[in-house]
Amino acid sequence: MIITLVWRPADHQLLQNVSFECREDDVPVATTVSPGRAQADVSDVASSLRLTLTFKATVGTITAEVLRIEQLFKRSPLASAQLPFFDAVSYTVLTGPSRNTIDGLHPLLRGGGQSWSVGTSLVDVTGLIPVFGQQMARMAPRAGGGHLASTTRIFARTDDVLPQLWIVATPHACRGADATDVLCFLGPSQNHGTPPPLAEQFSVLATTAKLVAHGAVMFGGGTPDGGGNTPPTPRLMDRFTPGNFVLANGFEAALVASGKHAVFAIPVPANKSHNVAATAALPGLLADVHRLVVALGDAHPSSGKKLVKPQFALAAFSSGALALWGEPDPGHRGPLAPTTRRPGALRAGPDAYTDLLLFEGLDTTAHLNDLARSGSTRVVFIGYARGTVAVPFAKSKLMPKLTGRVSRLPLPSTVPGEKEPESAPLDQLKVHSPSLAHALAALAAPPALPKDLFVLKHHLCTWSGDDEGISGAPEQHFLLQALKGSKLR
Q1: 414, 376: one domain
Q2: 95 lies in a domain?
Q3: Does residue 379 lie in a domain region?
Q4: pLDDT tens-digit profile of 133-146?
Q5: Using omega within 30 degrees of 0 as the cis cutoff, is the peptide bond preceding 343 cis?
Q6: Whether the Cβ atoms of residue 488 and residue 181 lie closer than 8 Å to each other
Q7: What pLDDT sits at residue 95?
Q8: Are residues 115 and 195 located together in one domain of the fold?
Q9: 8 Å CB contact between 98 and 300
Q10: Does residue 489 form part of some domain?
Q11: Where does a domain end: 84, 99, 120?
Q12: pLDDT: which is higher, 202 or 410
């Protein structure tokens, strides 16, 4: 009897180096591997099969494992000598040196009987980009003066679907959790051009540095070796200087501190667009991320329990919110651009997402009806701007379908004026936010260019929080506050 595993694409550069082991009643049997296919010849009377399929990739001089699947099958009580078949009993994931056994079928396997397909559309390429791990390791001080209790990785799609690259952080608390959800962050896409080939992304330092910077800025906690320019707050990168604002938002730290069992996933924009992530297909992409996170052992139920279907939540900042209601197709921007738009991630359905966190999201007021159709989704408006926070929040409270599920951070009573971020007095915001006060203190001179002031104030909502210092409590990141009432588990 021949057991067959197949995968696509068979000729992708990340899926070339494949090893396959099959143990029949714990004894190795003969196997063969060809492009897109692995087979094992087992006896008709075998009582158990353990299949282990491993994919490695080589870029330049670096070889790293990108995917591993280990599945235990046992002979079905309904099987016969004439019709032998097996039931999926459990699969094993590796978390460091630990082996964790989970009941049921591996999340990347589909099929039955003697033929199974392997989900290889998304793989882990972190090991092929060592500079990413080095940069993330440098980002200290972090929790307790060491590293955050989370694992950061880069995933790559092999099926030509954009976004091709995803940067993912998974709190260690997800190991052994009954359920793990996914929080997807959609950031501004205007600064990311057409993606270079994967080989260039992995091997060309200048290209890799851009990718690393994207992850560092969103997850970051500051760097201790910034050439003497390190600000006194770990929320900022060492390049925080007038004319070059590079902000480390600290989302990873906020997620860990929240205690939520959720994966933080960032699709890396390409060609000035979130592409398929800006459509109703986004939940499917997030399900792919969740399955791979489980396969890698970064999140899994306790041994002996089955995997629980994840919930999805969205966070969007600035023009990243266009991906929710319909962003312009790639290359179609500006006053004379065509009006062709992608349908938007909210088209996935009224209850596709548990929470929607809008960090001064653009075009929000014009799409309140889209929010009203979002079923029971909890909506939080975050930031200081009148046009993207105060106005849509006030109008949403008058809409019956949004009653009881909208809120705002900071609370209206603590907002320093009702002005747009580019015109709000800097001193007023400085008093409101200790993080901003620390940042300005680190500068040789206050930012003078209008664009720099706008960047500073507009980004404040993504790396700052309420000033609760007046009452003696520490300042809390807005994401941390928003997650307190989240439906994520």
Answers
A1: yes
A2: yes
A3: yes
A4: 665 655 543 434 44
A5: no
A6: yes
A7: 79
A8: no
A9: no
A10: no
A11: 120
A12: 410
* Closest listed residue to residue 30, CA positions, set 38, 350, 10, 45: 38
DSSP 89: E
Give me the pLDDT at residue 248, please. 57
- Domain end point (choices 80, 95, 120): 120
- Which tokens go with 354? 């548990």
Asked if residue 467 has pLDDT above 50, the reply is: no
Q: Is the pLDDT of residue 226 over 60?
A: no
Spatial neighbors of 206 by CB under 8 A, at least 6 apart, are none
Cis? peptide before 77, omega within 30° of 0: no
Q: Which domain range does residue 209 map to?
A: 126-484
- Model pLDDT, residue 427: 62
Structure-block tokens of residue 309: 């279907």
- Tokens 């004026």, residue? 417
Q: How wide is the angle at C-alpha 203 spanned by C-alphas 189 and 190, nearest 5°?
A: 10
Burial of 225 (0-12, 13-18, 19+ CB in 10 A): exposed
Q: How many residues does the chain have?
A: 489
Confidence of residue 338 (pLDDT cuts 50, 70, 90): very low
**What sign for the dihedral angle of Cα 252, 358, 324, 318?**
negative
Tell me how many domains the chain contains.
2
Amino acid 447: pLDDT = 57
How far, in Å, are 251, 252, 462 from residue 477 at the CA level? 8, 11, 8
Between 473 and 103, residue with greater pLDDT = 103
One domain for residues 370 and 411: yes
29 & 135 share domain = no
Q: How far apart are CA 11 and CA 399, in angstroms?
A: 53
> Could you read off the pLDDT of 356-375 as tens digits, one per residue?
999 999 999 999 999 999 88
Q: Is 450 found in the same domain as 343?
A: yes
185 and 93 in one domain?
A: no
Residue 382 pairs in a beta bridge with 359, 409
Beta-carbon contacts of residue 156 (< 8 Å; ≥ 6 apart): 14, 122, 123, 125, 164, 165, 166, 198
Check residue 73 and give its pLDDT. Answer: 93
Q: Does residue 112 share a domain with residue 143? A: no
Position 434: which residue type? P
